[in-house]
Amino acid sequence: MLEFVYHDEPAQLEWFVQDLVTAAQHTLYGQELLCRATLVDSQIPIAMEPLMDYLNHHQDLLLEMTNQQLDDLFISGRLTHLIDNSIWINIAGKLIACASLFDRLWRQTLSKLTAKQKQCLVLEICEDTISSDDPSVARISFLQNQGFRVAMDDFGSGHSNLIQLSRSNFDIIKLDLKLIQDVPTDLWAASLYREVISLCSSKGSLIVAEGIETQAQSDFVRWAGVDIIQGFLYSKPRPIKVKLAKNG
What we know:
Blueprint: E1 2-6, E2 9-22, E3 28-39, E4 45-46, H1 48-56, H2 59-75, E5 87-91, H3 93-97, H4 99-108, H5 115-120, E6 121-126, H6 134-145, E7 149-155, H7 162-167, E8 172-175, H8 187-201, E9 206-209, H9 215-224, E10 228-229, E11 238-239
Parallel strand pairs: 3-5, 5-6, 6-7, 7-8, 8-9, 9-10
Antiparallel strand pairs: 1-2, 2-3, 2-10, 2-11, 3-4
Protein name: EAL domain-containing protein
Domain EAL: 1-248
InterPro entries: Cyclic-di-GMP_PDE-like (IPR050706), EAL_dom (IPR001633), EAL_sf (IPR035919)
């Protein structure tokens, strides 16, 4: 949990998790760590779109949130009990694109993780916030060379960053849920989805199908060749309880 000020009102961020399952066996592959925010006094939830817009305009808070998640997971150990196979967290593209923010993220948390902890972690970077310039590409490669797995999140949202896809070798590519909405009933959408999988697979990346809500969608993406599935059909985001450290 992280307390902050949202438009002059006290608010708090709380952590949720959602399961990812293997396409082949429907067994647990890992969990994604998500955040939800509420206003403290009224307990009114803050919608995700205005929350992310606020965070993107308050980059120090964005960095603090990410550092807090990593600390809870690996450094203080308050969330260590949650890690089953792998834990996936979102890294804002601005934390990659901005040299000073990336340096602080690296020094404050990422550099402190052990090799074993890195094996449990997947860093998700949203497609439409990834810059295709050389520094961003170099920082992603740096993280991979340091033992982190990096995923391109929401591939296919709005405009597909094909240049970025061609210049970086992401370990994992998560297909945006908008791509699956009309699948499998719409033949054109189904053909496009399969072509996107073929394109991403040619890079040697694991492919995640996001937004799977029906059995028909699940059957289709398994047939089309995805490796991992995420969606309400298998798991809804659920709140988690932080284990507090014992005194003494």
